[in-house]
Write a structure and sequence with these properties.
heterodimer; A: alpha/beta; Rossmann fold; 9-stranded mixed sheet; B: Mth169, Chain: A; 2 helices; 3 strands; elongated
């Protein structure tokens, strides 16, 4: 039986169709609506990129109070696999499901380019198909992607094997602390990153590396469920 | 109905590139002597009950990981 992915759509989300296609390439995929407190019994939740609720106040700050997020929090706390991409990562950080916060890029510019990422951990459903230390290529496009945690929490992150990806040398596009591009929670079932694996799922896009994250989840979620 | 003003600033130690950009722009306009420029946010609101304001700040108006906030109550009416 194929794994069912749910992709959350908020007002202002813009990457949900690419995310849906990436998920549909490796399993079944459907959209989840921000106003419905219903995850439709999916196996994996993906929170895609965009500008949820206009990103008013702070990036991701308002989306966390939507009805669907209450269910995502329960799902995550019960061990369900959740991936936040870009704005999705910002929402998960604001929700407290992931550590840290995303600040404006040091350059104050919107960054849009391919970046090399080094796999930091293979213990999440989304990175289980990679080798730790392997380099992959996916696009990044954001203005508020500077990952920040205070020094004491950074030490904890590293000690708990929570660094999902680091930008390769010279590829940090935003000034993120310790070159961190993505993190996971302590349990490893919730992951978030600023770059966009859903935009690297076809030879036409220049890289297929992103597809492997969804394929990993399709393989692992079935086992976990 | 009390009106409140909440001042939200980046925490000390957090790089504020907006502040730095403004700091660099001032001398270009001939204004010297400005340093440590920090840019934050101002929220003003009418409240039925100001007792909840601290929680509002902690949970929504500010992100305590990266921001400090300061509450100021304006023209409070004593009833």
């Amino acid at each position: 039986m194929s794994v069912r992915f749910g992709v959350v759509r908020f007002p202002g989300t813009c990457d949900e169709i690419d995310a849906l296609r990436a998920c549909a390439a490796v399993g079944d995929a459907e959209l989840l609506w921000h106003g419905d407190a219903d995850l439709k019994d999916v196996d994996v939740v993906v929170i895609p990129g965009g500008f949820s609720y206009g990103d008013y106040l702070r990036v991701g700050a308002l989306a966390r109070f939507s009805p669907v997020m209450g269910e995502v929090v329960k799902f995550a706390e019960s061990g369900g696999a959740v991936l936040g991409i870009c704005n999705g990562f910002q929402i998960l950080a604001e929700s407290g499901l992931l550590p840290g916060a995303l600040l404006p890029n040091l350059s104050l510019r919107f960054v849009c380019r391919e970046v090399d990422l080094v796999v930091g951990t293979d213990r999440t459903p989304f990175t289980s198909g990679f080798d730790v230390g392997e380099t992959i290529e996916v696009p990044a496009k954001h203005r508020c992607g500077r990952f920040y945690v205070p020094d004491d929490q950074l030490a904890e992150l590293k000690a708990n094997d929570q660094v999902l990806f680091r930008y390769a040398d010279g590829h940090n596009p935003n000034g993120s602390v310790d070159d961190i591009a993505g993190v996971c929670n302590v349990a490893g079932n919730v992951a978030g990153l600023m770059p966009h694996p859903e935009h690297a799922v076809d030879a036409l896009m220049g890289s297929l590396d992103g597809l492997r994250m969804f394929a990993s989840a399709a393989g692992r979620a079935g086992v976990a469920a | 109905m009390p009106r409140a003003r909440v001042l939200i600033r980046p925490k000390t130690g957090i790089l504020d590139p907006q502040g730095e950009a403004v700091e660099r722009a001032l001398p270009a306009l001939g204004f010297g002597g400005a340093s440590d420029v920090r840019i934050g946010r101002l929220v003003e609101l009418d409240l039925d009950d100001a007792a909840d304001l601290d929680q509002m700040c902690e949970r929504l108006l500010a992100n305590p990981l990266i921001e400090d906030y300061e509450i100021e109550l304006l023209d409070s009416v004593v009833s």
